[in-house]
Amino acid sequence: MTTFKEMTVYQIYPKSFYDSNGDGVGDLQGIIEKIPYIKELGVDMVWLNPIFPSPQKDNGYDVSNYQEIDPLYGTMEEFELLVSLLEKEGIGVMLDMVFNHTSTEHPWFQQALSDEGKYRDYYLLRQSQEDGSLPTNWQSKFSGPTWAKFGNTDYYYLHLFDVSQADLNWRNSQVRQELRQVLSFWLSKGVKGFRFDVINLIGKDVQLVDAKPDEEDKSLYTDRPIVHDFLKEMNEKSFGRLSNVVTVGELSSTTVEQGKSYSNPQNRELDMVFNFHHLKVDYKDGQKWTRMPYDFIELKKIINEWQVGMNEGNGWSALFWNNHDQPRALNRFGHTGIYREKSAKMLAAAIHLLRGTPYIYQGEEIGMVNPDYTRLKDYRDVESYNAYEEMLKKGLTKTQALEILQEKSRDNARSPMQWQNSTHAGFTKGTPWINVSEQYKEINAESEMSKKDSVFQFYQQLIRLRKECQIISIGDYQPFLVEHPWVFAYKREDEIHELLVLNNFYEEEVLIELPDEFVNEKSSILISNEENTKITKKYRLSPFESIAILRQK
Ligand code: TEU
């Protein structure tokens, strides 16, 4: 059986994957129809973004029932069928557990609103401060204050995200028990993995306090020590009892120390964690809604810090460039013109050969790029609309604000999967819920599958190599050429082999002096995106070239 260190996960955003019934929204039956495609890629697990009933204010991250399937996506029978068909292909299903908050339409919240019974303690309700100001001065991740009036009462409820996403009170043991029950329910349906949304935000202090002027409010609710207690308990009383369940925690702004702690197997919390620091290197002054060329040295520094730290501390990282919250990596770190395919392969190798478990976001394997929406009405995401308003308030013109959305909006990842060169890229026979990128004529799965040396084939190769070569799955990590301004390089090592990985992130050719031990008959090219290349002492890396050289020790 493939362990989580040898596996590759494929992320499916169900709404935008494949629409089988023509209502414009992707669905479970659509995923079923695309199983042959997923199998062909060779992944071991698929992570589905939330498919539970939801008012869809934040595309399903506002759950109103944890134990049903949203009719938008299909039925429980279809879900069961999907699980069993994937299982036949040796592919597990990972579900997205949004346990930091529920939708305000969840019966718990509704019940809490209607009487003073036990459900009030399921949420974080506080009264205003003595001077009448809100319980704390915290700012929501989606703009505005984190507090909203709780019905007709004197209370406010906490929402770190949208006003429709009320934070749960994890200090209440009944809440924790209910959530474990949710996990049991899905485990009994054959689910093999869980991704825990913003899991490092679940532990709030008893006394919630204002952030001081020189303090970031997020430090007051992120990675609080009690999060570890909650995770240990959930592990012990739930998935930890089973040997074959994979867990990954999504960590909002965190530290390497915390990452190790959550994922070191000795702590019995989670198998691995996502962090986002490497994807903030194009944020000006730490602010997302800005434009700035990305800082390559900083990118390398962050990846190296995490790789080295997690390696030393026996932690485990989820590796990724793309997900449903991020603009396409090709637009940020690769090339969208003549080097699109080559840079797509380079980025793939750069991330897949690191120490950790790689995640591929739908469309990445065919080299999809941002859809370049030009009008405000092309967008759907609540965060994008709020950010647009904020930008106008700050004095940006509509054109400037739109340009920033075009680069930064989460909808860049959410445009429908491009299947073929036909209307709506073959995603739907109806009207898609969000526009298909015009680029589908050139970039689509069908043409990709018929090509030689395609991006898709390169991903297949990387997925296979991780299973075949132990050095990729569990070898140690060492940074290499740390100061190089264009090349991201590193070494991996186990008892018998050493692997040298060189990735040129630029359009310029670069001459690299290879270490002697990699230039002899015991060395060979493991994978490269360059045809007909061979190892030489003075090695010329072409634009966006990636090469991995394996040597026997
Ligand atoms: O995201 C958590 C998160 O903090 C970010 O990635 C967030 O989307 C980003 O900061 C916005 O700029 C998770 C989910 O992945 C995201 O889709 C949800 O909206 C969010 O939690 C709330 O559940």
From TrEMBL:
<dbReference type="InterPro" id="IPR006047">
    <property type="entry name" value="GH13_cat_dom"/>
</dbReference>
<feature type="domain" description="Glycosyl hydrolase family 13 catalytic">
    <location>
        <begin position="11"/>
        <end position="414"/>
    </location>
</feature>
<dbReference type="InterPro" id="IPR012769">
    <property type="entry name" value="Trehalose_TreC"/>
</dbReference>
<dbReference type="GO" id="GO:0004556">
    <property type="term" value="F:alpha-amylase activity"/>
</dbReference>
<keyword id="KW-0326">Glycosidase</keyword>
<dbReference type="GO" id="GO:0005993">
    <property type="term" value="P:trehalose catabolic process"/>
</dbReference>
<keyword id="KW-0378">Hydrolase</keyword>
<dbReference type="GO" id="GO:0005737">
    <property type="term" value="C:cytoplasm"/>
</dbReference>
<dbReference type="InterPro" id="IPR056300">
    <property type="entry name" value="SusG-like_C"/>
</dbReference>
<comment type="similarity">
    <text>Belongs to the glycosyl hydrolase 13 family.</text>
</comment>
<dbReference type="InterPro" id="IPR045857">
    <property type="entry name" value="O16G_dom_2"/>
</dbReference>
<protein>
    <recommendedName>
        <fullName>Alpha,alpha-phosphotrehalase</fullName>
        <ecNumber>3.2.1.93</ecNumber>
    </recommendedName>
</protein>
<dbReference type="GO" id="GO:0008788">
    <property type="term" value="F:alpha,alpha-phosphotrehalase activity"/>
</dbReference>
<dbReference type="Pfam" id="PF23915">
    <property type="entry name" value="SusG_C"/>
</dbReference>
<dbReference type="InterPro" id="IPR013780">
    <property type="entry name" value="Glyco_hydro_b"/>
</dbReference>
<dbReference type="InterPro" id="IPR017853">
    <property type="entry name" value="GH"/>
</dbReference>
<dbReference type="Pfam" id="PF00128">
    <property type="entry name" value="Alpha-amylase"/>
</dbReference>
